[in-house]
Amino acid sequence: MFASPLETGIAPSGTLLGLLQRGRGDGWLHALAAPRATAVAALEHCVLHDPRRDWRLEHRSLYYARLYRELDAGLDAVAAHLFHPADHPDNHPEERTGLALSVLGHLTSYGDERALDLLRRYAVSGANWRWALDELAVRDDDAGLRALGPSILDRFPRTEAGERALTAAVRDSFEPRPWRVWAEDPGRPNQRDRLSRALTDGDFDRWQRQMRPPGPQPGWSVAAVLAWAQEGYEQTPRQWREASAARCLGAVAGPADRPTLLAAAAGGPPAARAAALRHLAERGDSRVFALVEAAAASVDEDVSRAAVTAFSRMSDRGALAWARRWAARPDDLGSCAAAMLARRGEAGDAPRVLAALRRAVRGHGTDARELRPLVEGAGRLGVTAAVPVLRHIYRETSSSQLRGHTVRALAATDTSFPTGFAVECLWDCEEDTRELAARSAATADVRVVERLRRLATDPAERAGVQTAVRGRLAARTIG
């Protein structure tokens, strides 16, 4: 009925590897039931070859770390991966080793001394040392961090360039604790002096950045703002100033400037046209819909994309009326219109949202970028006819974030959710998904009660999940 997923490097969802790559609860359960060697091999493949589409948005590290503990898997493969000759600053260190380091961080929280030792060693010699240091910053004690100080500072030669690099590293650190521990180390006065200067210079750099005016100045005209937007577009590398220019237009444009803005939106150069479209859309100009429709059909992809973005920022009833007209279009403007109906439409818009959801899955698979608002809309509007599609997305998508949104939609539309997917979701890799499952899963299943008890005492579990878990356990005890 639906298109197969098009993920690169993601195994089919019916396999152990595919389930673990997706971070599904069933992957955890299947791994415990599979031969240990098979399960460990699949787990190591996931940790050493990050399966996430966007590691900034999706979580896997706690999920994999817990499975390492359950399987009593060794860390030799992780160590070989971290200290491989391919570990080089030019070899995308965050993508290559970030997941493995995060898994080690969680294992350290569980008291795994080997994981702690690997993090310390990698912080000293690895290319992605900043990530390892951030993991240690929230888990290692002061004595362990102090011992690393000299080796970390040796990365920065005592030259002018080295001191600038040190200042930048201190200023941009995600976790500042190690730098402050080293700056306060009473046993190394030279180190204290050097880091005190770096901390002070970093604070001054931040202040200077905030004081530097980056864009147009007061008194600019509409023509000047549009020219500034186009100037950035023509630079190398290109600077897309559409949003900044639209904000500036909001400050300088008056009623007399409308003809200029309409002309720019109808046929100006790409960046000026984009800025004018966005400005007019944000103000609900009566002529903007025709301009958006014309720009969306442009052969210039930048102009077409800007038109869709401009329309997506509209929120009045007129925009909803045009969204109903455009929702069946097969292009990006149609996807944007359907998303608008999913977010702000009424009950009568449910068939349009369902049609767009089916069209997106059939045409672009279960990882299509337009799926999230449509999935959320199916849940918000209570579209029970969408349940088969939502179940398919749940099983097949490689994005644990999208699966989480799908779970919330299923909770609102699928009457079998508490006894079905909600049980599996107690083992899911995403915190929000586990929390919803903890509130929803039917406790008649003995696995549910056992899992709730384990989550309630797990020191690495997130606060929101534990609150939901303890609430369910308390209610069950009272009942």
Walkthrough of the structure:
The protein is mostly helical and 479 residues long. 67% of the residues lie in helices and 0% in strands. Helix 23 packs antiparallel against helix 24. The chain is flat and about 70 Å long. The two termini are 44 Å apart.
Short note summarizing the structure:
With about 475 residues, the chain is an all-alpha fold. The protein contains 28 helices and no strands.
List the keywords.
479 residues; mainly alpha
Average the pLDDT over all residues and give the rounded result. Answer: 91
Q: What spatial form do the alpha-carbon principal axes imply?
A: flat
Q: Helical region count?
A: 28
Structural class, by secondary structure, is mainly alpha
Oligomer: single chain
User: What is the CA-CA span between the terminal residues?
Assistant: 44 Å
Rg on CA atoms, Å: 27 Å
Order of helices and strands: HHHHHHHHHHHHHHHHHHHHHHHHHHHH
- Number of distinct beta strands: 0
Point out poorly predicted stretches.
1-7
Percent helix: 55-70%
Percentage of residues in strands? under 5%
- Tell me about the biggest sheet? none
Topology:
Blueprint: H1 16-22, H2 25-33, H3 36-48, H4 61-71, H5 76-82, H6 93-109, H7 113-125, H8 129-137, H9 142-153, H10 160-171, H11 177-183, H12 189-211, H13 222-233, H14 242-252, H15 258-267, H16 270-282, H17 288-296, H18 301-312, H19 317-326, H20 332-344, H21 350-364, H22 371-380, H23 387-396, H24 400-413, H25 421-424, H26 431-440, H27 446-457, H28 463-478
Helix pairs in contact: 1-2, 1-3, 2-3, 3-4, 4-6, 6-7, 6-8, 7-8, 9-11, 10-12, 11-12, 13-14, 13-16, 14-16, 15-16, 16-18, 17-18, 18-20, 19-20, 20-21, 20-22, 21-22, 22-24, 23-24, 24-26, 26-28, 27-28
